[in-house]
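Researcher: Please predict.
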Amino acid sequence: MVSWVPIIDVSRPNAAAEINAACERVGFLTVVGHGVPNGVIDGAWTTARTFFDLPLADKMSVAMPRPGYPYGYSPIAGETLAKSLGNGGAPDLKESYAIGPVDLPTHTIIDPDEEFAWSPNLWPDTVPLLQPAWEQYFRSLSELAARLLRLMAIGLDIPEYHFDPMICRHTSAMRALNYPPQSDVAPGQLGASAHTDYGTLTILLADPVQGGLQVTDDNGNWHDVRAEPGSFVVNLGDAMARWTNDRWRSTMHRVQVPQGRRQSIAFFHNANWDASIECLATCLPAGAQPKYAPIAAGPHLMQKFQSTVNAY
């Protein structure tokens, strides 16, 4: 039986064609052969686990200073991802720690909302190894995202480096998520409620524990996504769906409340703040009109993010 989410070795010559098929069918793929060193991955993972094991007071020392601030610690029930789709529901049963760009911008920022996306990261003094480990991981995943987008461009029959000028000042974010075991779960409450991601693509490092990431198909059925050892789970965001006129899918997904503890690290890759997300010529049938009007990547991202935040 073929897995709902295919495993693709992105170092192989046919990777672009396999990526295209996966993005058209499900919008998710599991990538191996990605080239990110194990030591870089382990450093980010272990320091995240150390941070989540701290007493709550220590974690709150780097809490997001106010609801809607993009980076820092968010406690259990600090977010409801379903709100990004205009839905309500019980708060998500997870805690998180997030950072944004780790290098200073090299361009002049005019839009105050873009300046917000470059807000300072909040680093915990109690885990001094976290900052260098996370900065190295962030840079490595930025390089991987660029390589994946070049393969995606080939799969879309456009020049290999088409996306490079649109991601050279990317405002990506990285978030570690911890889903502790729960004894009191409201009906329908989830670790992460059903949502789509907002940007270009998401690169996820996840625990292979029972009760985790699920993706939906056209009939509303949910399929488990296995976290294969040494792999990343990659899914498309709304920006890529708009770029491809829905030829490629930004797929609804959720995280169940796990039976055991679950941890993950998600790298949310975004385009440059002022990048125009508009239909690619190879994704528009002759005589057809684009489904979506052009939109700037930054304002789209900001609206989606701020809609999910709960007061705490």
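Model: Residues 81-85 have pLDDT under 50 and may be disordered.
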